[in-house]
Design a protein that fits this description.
Elements (H helix, E strand, L loop, with lengths): L2 H33 L15 H11 L2 H9 L9 H4 L5 H31 L3 H5 L2 H17 L1
Helix pairs in contact: 1-2, 1-5, 2-5
Length: 149
């Protein structure tokens, strides 16, 4: 199997799993919170449709110190109110929220890992995904450009 195919397959599986969890979380919990008169106005600002799902997931998953900082911020109206939402959630809802929180941050961590890898080794991640022939071709192209200059 080609490395690009394997990486693409892993990425596709990750995306499908993420969206399944996202939809389940939205249908199970956030719909219930939207219908509740007490929690309806504490879901945070919804920039686009479905943004309140992320607001609720992040609010339920943030560490305590991050929640305290968010409460004191003048932009606290953007986030869902943890104290208003928590009594209306179950353990299952909180586990789904943590999965969404972790899976949303995973691409950022992978990108940071790639940047650190590139800084340490000096090799581009894109050259790693290319086959050996294409790498040789790109090296030959660079040598030809140097000879022209």
């Amino acid at each position: 199997m080609d490395l690009k195919f394997v990486v693409g397959l892993i990425f596709l599986c990750w995306v499908i799993f993420y969206w399944i969890i996202y939809i389940i979380f939205g249908q199970v919990l956030v719909r219930k919170l939207r219908k509740n008169k007490i929690t309806k106005n504490s879901l945070g600002l919804e920039f686009v449709s479905g943004w309140d799902i992320l607001n609720v997931a992040f609010s339920l998953s943030y560490p305590v110190w991050m929640r305290e900082v968010a409460k004191k911020s003048p932009l606290s109206f953007l986030e869902a109110d943890y104290d208003a939402i928590y009594p209306y959630t179950t353990k299952f809802d909180r586990v789904l929220a943590k999965i969404i929180y972790c899976m949303t941050g995973a691409p950022v961590l992978f990108e940071l890992g790639f940047l650190i890898f590139e800084a340490i080794t000096g090799k581009s991640r894109f050259l790693l995904l290319m086959s050996k022939d294409k790498v040789r071709d790109s090296k030959k192209i660079k040598q030809d450009q140097k000879e022209r200059d």
